[in-house]
Write a structure and sequence with these properties.
This protein is about 40% helix and about 25% strand. Strands 24-25-27-28-29-30-31-32 form an 8-stranded mixed β-barrel. Helix 19 packs across helix 20 and helix 23 packs parallel to helix 25. It contains 29 helices and 33 strands. With about 850 residues, it is an alpha+beta fold.
Length: about 850
C-alpha cells in the first residue's frame, strides 16, 4: 500500500514530535529487542524508525549498524500495512530477492515486522525479528505477541512525551512569580515553590510537612477555613507574619479538588503590598483633590504627578461627558494613545449603543449626593483582547456646589477574574471528563429538592461501570482514563437536555432527571444508557467491552434530603450489581436490610479474629513430572457461628474496606509459617497477600518477624501477589518485593496471562514463579488458543528462569496437556482439595 504525500507528511511530523531520532540507547527499548529475540529465537531483532530517506535503529540485537537506506528497508513495507508483515523466505519474494540486505550482509531470509502505530494512526517504524534462514509463518498467537510488544514500544514513546510535559508543568509551578502552595489531606504543606520562599519568607525545607494554619497565625475568621473546606472560591486577603516579625499583605486564591477520595487545596498567593499601597495612595489622592478644590491651580502639578504614576486607571470628564484627563495606565489599558481620547465624547469613541449607556451613567453620577461613589465592573475590547476594569466613579463639585466633573478610578482585574473563573470551574468540574463533579451535583440536587414541593417528584440515577476495575487493572490507567472519557461522552449524548450529569469519581456517575412520571422516565433512560454503554469502545486500537449497573431513587417518595436520596440510590445500585450487573434497580425500603446485613458482617468480622473463627486450609502443590509433593497453598476460611462457612470472596473486600485486612493478613502469615515449620523440611507454604497490605508500612518487618518467631526457613515461604499490586504505587511496591527477596522469600505472580502489562512486569522484576490463570487450564483440552497461551507462558518462564504453576487442574486430560507443555507444578482438585493442617498427610506420590 502506497502512502499518500499527505499521509507521509503527517507520519514524518508525528515521528519528529516524539523527539526520538538519533537519541542514545535506552534500556527499555534494548530489553524489548532482547526479549523479542529470546521469545522468537531469532538472531536479529530491531526497533526501527523510518525517517525521510533512512531507517534508523533505536534498539538492535544481532546487528552492528545503526540504520540503512529507506529504499532497501523491509520496515518501509511493514509500515504500509495494518498488521504484522511476514516474509517467510526473502529469496522467494519478488519484492526482496534482489535486495542488497538479502544478497549481502546480514543475508536476510526470514522477516516479521509489527508496525509501531501512534495514536493518530501513523506508523512510525516497526518492531521486527530477522533470521538468516527461511522460517514458516508464525502462529496467530505469536504474531499477536509481536504486535503487543510493538504496542509496548509505542506506549514507551508516549510515556517519554508525558514525562517531558510533566517536567514542564512542574517547572512552570516552580518559576511562576506568584507563590504556589498545595495542602494535603491533613492540611500539611506538600508543595512550596521558589516564589513562596520569596513572598512568604520561609525556605521550602522548613515548611513542607508542617501544618498550614501554623504558618499563617494572623489569618483568622471563617475565610481561610472556608477556603480549606472548599466552600469559598473568591480571592481573599490576609497577612503573613515573616520570620523577622514584620508582616506582608497577601491575597489568596484557593482551588480545592479531590483525588481518589483524598482532598487537596491549592493556593495561589500574591504579594499585594504594592497594590495596597497604590490603593491607599489613590484614596489619599481623592481626599487631597476634594480638600483642595479651592486651590486647584496650586495642587494641579502635584495631582498630575500622582495620577500619572498611579498603577490604576484614572479618567476624568467634564459635565458634557468630554474626556479631559487620562493617565498612562488608562492609555495602556485602552490600547490607544491619550491624544485619541482627550477632548472626545463617548459618541465619538464608541458605538452608538455603548455611547448611550455611558452618557446615561454619567448623568446618574452627576446626580449623586456629594461623597457618594459608584462602583462597577465592565468589559472593554482592546487591540490586545477583552479586559475587565473595576471602577469607582464620583462627581467633583465646583465652588458653588455644582457637580461639573466626573472622576473614574479603575483597576485592571482581568487576570484575577480569569484565575477566579478557572478555580471556580475546577472546583465544580471533573478534570478528566469535564463533567460536573460531586460538589456541583450536590448543589443542583439541593436546589431541586427545595423546589420539589411545587415542581413535583424527580429521579436520581446512580451509575457504576461494570468490569471497569478489570479494564483499568489489565490494560493500564491510561486506557482506563480514555475509557472513562469515552463513557462520559456517550452518557452526555444519551441523556435528555433537562437532565444533569456528573462524575463522582472512579467509575461512578450520577444523573438528576426532572419531569413528570419520574419512574417511567428513569426506567426508559436507564435502558437507553445500558444500550449506549454496551457498544464496544475502540481505544487505541483495542476493543473494550463494558456495561453499567444503575440504582434509582425518587425524590420525596424515598427521601427528602440530598444525603438520604443519594444513599437510597447507592443502596439500589449495590443491589443492581449484586443481582448480576448490567441491570437497573429502584430503591425499596427492604434493601436497607441488605445494607444493614453487610454492615453486620463487617461488625462480625471485627470479632471473628478475637473469637478464633478463622481457619487455614492447605491445598497441595505437586511437581508435574515426576509426581512429587512440593508444598501447599494456604487458603483462608471463616467458620461463622450462625452463617456457617463464609467465602473469602464475600468477606475479604469488607476486610480491605475497613482496614481489618492488616490484622487478618498478619494472622494468616503467622499461622501459616507456624504450621509449615512443623512439616518436613522440603515442603514449602504459599501465602496470598492483598494489594491493600502494601499500602501500609511495615509489611517487610511483619514477614521478617513471622519467620523469626516460627523458625521457618525463608526459602520455604512463598508470597503470592496479583498484578493489581504492581499497578498501584509501582516503584514503592517493587521496592517491597525486592526486600522480600533479600530475606530469601520467594515471590509468585498469580493469575498470569490475563493482565495487560504482564510482560513489562517480568522485565522489571525477577519473579520466582508464574501461576497460570485457571481459565487457560480449563480450556486447554478444547481450545488451541488456550493451549498456545500456556505454551508461550511456560516457554517464557523457562527462558527467564521462572517456575510455572497451573491452577485449577481437575481432570487427567488437563494434566496430560500441561505435562506436554512442560508446566513445572500442578495444583487442583485432581491432586487434592484444601484441608486443615491436622488432616494433611505429607506423601509425595499419594493423595492428600
Amino acid at each position: 500500500m502506497e502512502l499518500s504525500s499527505s499521509d507521509e507528511a503527517l507520519r514524518q511530523e508525528t515521528l519528529r514530535r516524539y523527539d526520538i531520532l538519533h537519541t542514545p540507547p535506552e534500556g527499555f527499548f534494548d530489553k524489548i529487542v532482547q526479549m523479542a529475540a529470546s521469545v522468537f529465537q531469532t538472531p536479529i531483532s530491531l526497533v526501527t524508525l523510518v525517517d525521510d530517506d533512512t531507517q534508523w535503529f533505536k534498539a538492535r540485537v544481532g546487528l552492528d549498524i545503526c540504520g540503512t537506506d529507506r529504499r532497501v528497508s523491509f520496515c518501509d513495507h511493514a509500515i504500509r500495512q495494518p498488521d504484522v508483515m511476514v516474509v517467510g523466505d526473502a529469496l522467494e519474494d519478488p519484492r526482496f530477492r534482489d535486495n542488497p540486505l538479502v544478497t549481502g550482509a546480514p543475508f536476510i531470509r526470514f522477516y516479521a515486522g509489527a508496525p509501531i502505530v501512534a495514536p493518530n494512526g501513523s506508523a512510525l517504524g516497526s518492531l521486527c525479528i530477522i533470521d538468516t534462514k527461511p522460517r514458516p509463518r508464525p502462529s496467530e498467537q505469536e504474531l499477536d505477541l509481536l504486535q503487543q510488544m510493538a504496542s509496548l514500544v509505542m506506549q514507551q514513546l508516549e510515556t517519554r512525551v508525558l514525562e517531558s510535559v510533566k517536567r514542564g508543568a512542574i517547572e512552570l509551578a516552580r518559576t511562576t512569580p506568584d507563590a504556589v502552595v498545595v495542602i494535603g489531606t491533613q492540611r500539611e504543606v506538600m508543595f512550596w515553590n521558589r516564589s513562596a520562599e520569596r513572598i512568604l519568607g520561609r525556605a521550602r525545607e522548613t515548611i513542607v510537612g508542617r501544618s498550614f494554619e501554623q504558618i499563617f497565625p494572623a489569618i483568622q475568621g471563617d475565610k481561610l477555613q472556608a477556603a480549606l473546606e472548599g466552600s469559598r472560591d473568591a480571592p481573599f486577603e490576609g497577612f503573613v507574619i515573616l520570620p523577622d516579625g514584620s508582616s506582608r499583605a497577601i491575597e489568596f486564591t484557593a482551588a480545592p479538588w479531590n483525588d481518589h477520595g483524598r482532598p487537596y487545596v491549592g493556593f495561589m498567593i500574591r504579594d499585594i503590598t504594592d497594590r495596597k499601597k497604590a490603593r491607599a495612595s489613590l484614596e489619599a489622592a481623592l481626599e487631597i483633590a476634594e480638600a483642595s478644590k479651592r486651590e486647584v491651580e496650586d495642587s494641579r502639578r502635584f495631582l498630575d504627578a500622582v495620577i500619572e504614576n498611579l498603577p490604576s486607571v484614572v479618567l476624568a470628564k467634564d459635565e458634557a461627558s468630554r474626556y479631559i484627563l487620562a493617565n498612562s495606565a488608562a492609555e495602556t489599558f485602552l490600547g490607544v494613545p491619550r491624544s485619541a481620547i482627550l477632548g472626545k465624547t463617548p459618541e465619538e469613541l464608541f458605538p452608538a449603543w455603548r455611547a448611550q449607556y455611558i452618557l446615561a451613567e454619567d448623568a446618574r453620577i452627576l446626580g449623586l449626593q456629594e461623597g457618594r461613589i459608584l462602583e462597577e465592573e465592565y468589559r472593554h475590547a482592546t487591540p490586545t483582547g477583552e479586559r475587565v476594569l473595576k471602577t469607582k466613579k464620583l462627581a467633583i463639585r465646583s465652588r458653588d456646589g455644582q457637580a461639573n466633573r466626573i472622576l473614574a478610578l479603575g483597576e485592571d482585574i482581568t487576570e484575577e477574574r480569569a484565575t477566579a473563573a478557572r478555580i471556580a470551574y475546577m472546583a465544580h468540574h471533573d478534570p478528566l471528563t469535564s463533567l460536573a463533579n460531586r460538589t456541583a451535583f450536590n448543589e443542583r440536587l439541593a436546589s431541586a429538592l427545595r423546589m420539589a414541593p411545587e415542581s413535583g417528584d424527580f429521579a436520581v440515577l446512580y451509575l457504576d461501570l461494570d468490569d471497569f476495575k478489570s479494564v483499568n487493572d489489565t490494560m493500564g490507567p491510561r486506557i482506563g482514563d480514555a475509557v472513562l472519557a469515552a463513557c462520559a461522552r456517550r452518557l452526555r449524548a444519551a441523556i435528555p437536555e433537562e437532565a444533569f450529569l456528573a462524575r463522582f469519581g472512579g467509575d461512578e456517575f450520577a444523573i438528576l432527571l426532572m419531569g413528570d412520571d419520574p419512574d417511567a422516565k428513569a426506567r426508559d433512560l436507564a435502558e437507553t444508557l445500558h444500550r449506549a454503554l454496551a457498544e464496544p469502545f475502540d481505544i487505541d486500537g483495542s476493543s473494550v467491552m463494558l456495561g453499567t449497573s444503575i440504582g434509582i431513587a425518587i425524590a420525596l417518595r424515598h427521601a427528602s434530603t440530598a444525603e438520604e436520596l443519594l444513599r437510597c440510590a447507592d443502596i439500589a445500585l449495590y443491589e443492581a450489581k449484586r443481582t448480576g450487573r448490567g441491570t437497573l434497580c429502584f430503591f425499596d425500603p427492604d434493601l436497607d436490610q441488605v445494607t444493614r446485613d453487610r454492615h453486620a458482617l463487617g461488625k462480625d468480622l471485627r470479632e471473628a479474629l478475637a473469637r478464633e473463627q478463622f481457619e487455614l486450609h492447605y491445598q497441595p502443590v505437586y511437581a508435574a513430572v515426576p509426581r512429587q509433593l512440593i508444598g501447599y497453598e494456604a487458603l483462608l476460611r471463616w467458620r461463622h457461628p450462625d452463617r456457617g462457612m463464609i467465602s473469602p470472596a464475600e468477606f475479604i473486600p469488607i476486610a480491605e474496606e475497613t482496614g481489618l485486612i492488616h490484622l487478618l493478613g498478619e494472622w494468616v502469615l503467622l499461622t501459616a509459617c507456624r504450621e509449615a515449620a512443623t512439616w518436613p523440611q522440603d515442603l514449602q507454604v504459599a501465602v496470598n497477600l492483598s494489594p491493600a497490605q502494601f499500602k501500609r508500612e511495615g509489611l517487610v518487618t511483619l514477614v521478617r518477624t513471622c519467620l523469626e518467631e516460627t523458625g521457618l526457613t525463608p526459602a520455604r515461604l512463598e508470597l503470592e501477589i496479583t498484578e493489581s499490586v504492581l499497578l498501584d504505587e509501582t516503584l514503592a511496591n517493587f521496592s517491597v518485593l525486592k526486600q522480600f527477596q533479600s530475606l530469601g522469600v520467594k515471590i509468585a505472580l498469580d493469575d498470569f496471562g490475563v493482565g495487560y502489562s504482564s510482560l513489562s512486569y517480568l522485565r522489571s522484576f525477577p519473579f520466582d514463579k508464574l501461576k497460570i490463570d485457571r481459565s487457560f487450564v480449563t480450556e486447554m483440552p478444547s481450545s488451541k488458543q488456550a493451549a498456545a497461551i500456556v505454551r508461550a507462558i511456560t516457554t517464557l518462564g523457562h527462558s527467564l528462569g521462572m517456575i510455572t504453576t497451573a491452577e485449577g487442574v481437575e481432570t487427567q486430560e488437563q494434566l496430560d496437556a500441561l505435562r506436554q507443555e512442560r508446566c513445572d507444578l500442578i495444583q487442583g482438585y485432581l491432586y487434592g482439595r484444601p484441608l486443615p493442617a491436622e488432616q494433611l498427610v505429607h506423601k509425595g506420590g499419594q493423595g492428600v
